[in-house]
Design goal:
Shape: globular
Largest sheet: 3 strands, antiparallel
Structural class: mainly alpha
Strand content: 5-15%
Oligomer: single chain
Organism: Aspergillus minisclerotigenes
Radius of gyration: 21 Å
InterPro entries: HNH_nuc
Number of strands: 7
Pfam family, one: HNH_2
Protein name: HNH nuclease domain-containing protein
Order of helices and strands: HHHHHHHEEEHEHEHEEHHHH
Length: about 400
């Protein structure tokens, strides 16, 4: 079975005539009003019991219906064939959003069923993922809003550990290989802060001291790079030569100072040939670009592997109805982009991700721990919690620092 066939089924938008757009807009507004009223009822409840998650599922169903209407409006406004619309950035974002909403709906329904059973309690990490931000249900709990001092301390630690700051205040970007003004550099978490320490421990295993705000879970990136770092466009993978031998693989795994490179996994992205800097460097030219660090400090491989898995899912979810998988995770020799084995993420969680993507992604299991632990769906739930609704993405508080928009 193909990866596309394994993914959540999309409701194919109907091609409406332009005269129907006002009617569709009215329907969208009604659903928007319904979702806001339903959210208020959820917030009024005092506990996260089965009734809460049943109501949450009802809200998500309304939001999913609205996204489907938005897709019909978008297609009606498009001058061209539906197959051409499906390849636009707007359509791809809508496809990804609908699949994420379907996944959220399934998760809420599962929680409601679980909590309806005697002596079952809500796991902390699930509550953090889906209730503590606008990407969830907007209920203040879990990590909540971050103290600015936490981000400030995180940034300062990155600058020190990665030896990234020059005496004149310029900061080194390992992707651009250049010194950048401080205002244009972002201290970026690899595993998002908003997911919380409990979720990090459940996925990777408990490590002390905790690493949610550790330099091992972060990178200093130019703000333009950081803006698209979690968009299903690029991944950071081990820097290995073409056709590596087993000895080369073992050497990389055993190295204390590991080297990485960036790979582009979306060769249909509309910005690939757009210049990033004044030197004419484009996104396309970043493919296979080795990251250059100033010292010997490196991020933990397990968090980069998590980012890799989430970006693979995001890229796959952008595929439209009837499209085949149009991206690859192997080089020209058939070697996986992430070509080294490791013990990064719980085996059962990676299996659940592969079931979502399709079994041609079995290679992802090379990053699995020997044993299973925790809830099977936690990795998937964490990935879904990272996807901001399109209509709220512009308003949402970013997990990292503020940065200039890139048109």
């Amino acid at each position: 079975m193909s990866a596309f066939e394994d993914m959540p089924t999309l409701v194919i938008p109907k091609k409406r005539c332009r005269e129907e757009i006002p009617q569709l807009m009215d329907k969208k507004d009604r659903l928007d009003s319904e979702s806001h009223k339903a959210r208020k009822k959820i917030k009024a409840q005092g506990s996260f019991n089965a009734q809460f998650w049943t109501a949450a599922a009802e809200v998500e169903a309304i939001i999913l219906s609205k996204t489907r209407v938005v897709s019909e409006i978008s297609l009606a406004q498009f001058e061209g064939e539906p197959s051409a619309w499906e390849r636009t950035e707007e359509a791809r974002r809508l496809f990804e959003q609908m699949r994420a909403q379907q996944r959220r709906l399934k998760s809420y329904q599962k929680q409601a069923t679980t909590l309806a059973k005697p002596k079952r309690s809500l796991r902390e990490c699930f509550m953090n993922l889906f209730t503590s931000s606008r990407m969830g249900l907007g209920v203040t709990t879990g990590m909540g809003e971050r103290d600015h001092s936490v981000q400030s301390n995180f940034r300062q630690q990155l600058l020190v550990d990665y030896e990234s700051e020059r005496d004149d205040g310029l900061i080194w970007c390992p992707v651009l290989h250049d010194w950048i003004y401080s205002d244009h550099m972002t201290a970026s978490h690899i595993f998002s802060y908003k997911h919380g320490q409990a979720t990090m421990d459940a996925i990777f295993g408990r490590v002390r001291p905790a690493e949610l705000s550790s330099s091992r879970n972060g990178l200093m990136l130019n703000s333009i790079i950081e803006k698209h770092f979690d968009s299903g466009v690029m991944v950071i993978v081990p820097n290995l030569p073409e056709r590596p031998t087993d000895t080369m693989l073992s050497k990389w795994v055993g190295q204390e100072v590991r080297e990485y490179k960036l790979r582009i996994i979306d060769n249909t992205w509309q910005h690939l040939d757009r210049a990033i800097n004044a030197d004419g460097l484009t996104w396309r030219k970043l493919d296979n670009r080795v990251l250059q660090f100033r010292g010997n400090y490196r991020p933990a491989a397990r968090y980069l592997y998590f980012h890799y898995c989430v970006q693979v899912l995001r890229r796959a979810w952008k595929l439209g109805p009837g499209q085949k998988t149009v991206f690859h995770l192997t080089d020209k020799f058939g070697k996986p982009f992430w070509g080294t084995p490791g013990r990064y993420i719980a085996k059962n969680m990676l299996r659940a991700l592969i079931e979502e993507l399709g079994h041609e992604y079995d290679k992802l299991l090379e990053g699995a721990t020997l044993l299973s632990r925790g809830e099977d769906d936690l990795l998937l739930d964490t990935a879904v919690a990272q996807f901001a609704p399109i209509e709220e993405a512009d308003d949402e508080d970013t997990d990292e620092e503020d940065f200039d928009d890139y048109d």
